[in-house]
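Summary for the lay section of the report: proteins are chains of building blocks that fold into shapes. Here we show the chain for Large ribosomal subunit protein bL32 and then a coded description of the shape we predicted for it.
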Amino acid sequence: MAVPKFKTSKARTRRRQSINMKLVAPTLVECSTCGNRVLPHRVCPKCGFYRGKQVIVPESKA
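The coded shape description reads as follows.
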């Protein structure tokens, strides 16, 4: 088994770890009915449409 010859510095360790800690903004698509920005493959909470069909009745209309 390989054994490190020298101690890994804090800077090198944190640089390596920081690559995987990046925050990513969620991908949003425009609702085809009302134009609201929603997550892909989800029902629009504003109008209740999914793929051109009324799936739910939103609370604002009820």
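Put simply, here is one thing we learned. DSSP finds one helix and four strands in the chain.
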